[in-house]
Structure formats: structure tokens, C-alpha cells
Design brief:
5 strands
């Protein structure tokens, strides 16, 4: 398997701390877009922790990542992601993220 350059996303948790995630890909499910993130702290382990968040847009058109998703939807999005990766790793869509300098 080729080494591809990773896209790292920094998110702020409920305690105000910045947490880094690797963007593994995106999935569209029932007209919503979801991002699949890998936990950077477990990246080197045999099983990396994976998080799925729905992409929403705020009033300024900026992406917001929402983790309030029903369990059944999370499972179906993850299954779809695995199918995409198994079919051809080259077809997994990676998105470029720009640094948000408005903070």
C-alpha cells in the first residue's frame, strides 16, 4: 500500500482543548455528507479509533462537524466507508481543508 500524505484536522473539544484527527475520507449517505476521522493518538495501533461526524454549514457557509448522529446511521456510514476503501483505495475522496485564521 502506498503512503499518502495525510490531511490533519484540528478540532476543539468540549473542554476547549485542541485534538488532532487524520481525515480518512468522506461519505455521502441519505443526502448528508459525513467525514470519517482517525484518532491521531491511536494511529500506530492495530485498530485505530474512528469517529464519524455529519458536515453542516453555518450561516457564513463554513463547515461545522456535528457528532450528534443516531447509532444506526453511524453504522451505515461506516459500512459504506469500508465498502469504498475495499473496492479501491484510490477512489476514497479526500478533502483539502484550509486553516481557519478567523479565530
Amino acid at each position: 500500500m502506498e503512503n499518502k500524505e495525510s490531511t490533519i484536522i484540528e478540532l476543539t473539544d468540549e473542554n476547549g482543548e485542541t485534538v488532532e484527527f487524520e481525515l480518512l475520507g468522506t461519505v455521502t449517505y441519505e443526502e448528508d455528507d459525513y467525514i470519517v476521522l482517525g484518532d491521531m493518538e491511536t494511529m500506530d495501533e492495530m485498530e485505530q479509533d474512528v469517529y464519524i461526524m455529519r458536515v453542516e454549514h453555518d450561516e457564513d457557509g463554513c463547515d461545522r462537524y456535528v457528532n450528534d448522529i443516531e447509532d444506526g446511521v453511524i453504522e451505515r456510514v461506516f459500512e459504506r466507508f469500508v465498502e469504498l476503501v475495499e473496492v479501491d483505495e484510490e477512489d476514497v475522496e479526500y478533502i483539502e481543508c484550509e486553516d481557519d485564521e478567523d479565530e
